[in-house]
Design a protein that fits this description.
single chain, 7 helices, binds NADP nicotinamide-adenine-dinucleotide phosphate, Rossmann fold, globular, 210 residues
């Protein structure tokens, strides 16, 4: 996990056309005293905008039956539950657009800089909010693939690797990096005739009800 940023897997004649795993991510340590607004901006830039930028370049290149895995976190789900009811409704909406999502992620950063994010209904976590962005972005991207490349059988999901012993999570996490790779690899190698999961947050190879 720790050394992978974006993994691109090309298949043979019969294999999956192309698989992309967007794995790069950051999290400030709890003890870090960087101002919260700066943490929000930097974390959002890497986790949300980085994933979005890579997808923007690579999604058009995905061949039929390709697989895309955006590494999010179960923390996105926990953080969703700490959003205001209004924000939860928007993030669960099946018609939210990428533009609307980007505006909301921008608003979180601006609210964090002014220290009004909690008053505005956001959870007090830059990492969690950026991962809400990654999970919701994945749902939007899956819908767009269905609309624009119907019949190509491309599958795109967000996932959580679990709590893994990496630079980010430290030595006390229960999973080895190999174990953490299991769910992302499962999603990247879904068989060519698979239709699901698609547009989901997947943890321990199971769909998390968003
Ligand atoms: N570990 C866990 O328990 C856990 C749990 C849930 C989700 N996740 C997610 O799993 C993914 C991998 O995390 P990890 O635990 O392996 O973290 P990590 O040990 O900190 O590794 C993160 C990786 O992302 C790369 N990266 C960070 N910022 C980047 C940028 N701006 N551009 C390009 N590459 C960048 C790093 O590259 P450099 O080394 O070159 O900086 C490193 O290879 C992340 O998305 C994380 O949020 C991890």
């Amino acid at each position: 996990m720790a050394s992978i940023k974006v993994a691109v897997v090309t298949g043979g004649n019969k294999g999956v056309g192309l698989a992309v795993v967007n794995n790069a991510g950051i999290a400030f340590k709890v003890a870090d005293n960087t101002p919260f607004g700066t943490q929000a901006e930097v974390t959002m830039k890497t986790n949300f905008y980085g994933t979005r930028d890579v997808c923007k370049e690579l999604l058009p290149l995905i061949k039929p039956h390709g697989r895309v895995v955006n590494v999010s976190s179960i923390v996105s789900y926990n953080s969703l539950g700490r959003c205001s009811p209004e924000l939860q409704k928007v993030f669960r909406s099946e018609s939210i657009t990428e533009e609307e999502l980007v505006k909301l992620m921008e608003k979180f950063v601006e609210d964090a800089k002014q220290d009004i994010h909690q008053k505005e209904g956001w959870p007090n976590t830059a990492y969690g909010t950026s991962k809400i962005g990654v999970t919701v972005l994945s749902k939007i991207q899956a819908r767009e693939l269905d609309a624009t490349r119907k019949g190509d059988g491309i599958i795109l999901n967000a996932c959580c690797p679990g709590w893994v012993r990496t630079d980010m999570a430290g030595p006390n996490a229960p999973k080895s990096p190999d174990e953490g790779a299991e769910t992302p690899v499962y999603l990247a190698l879904l068989p060519p005739d698979a239709t699901a999961p698609h547009g989901e947050l997947v943890s321990e190879k199971k769909v998390v009800k968003w």
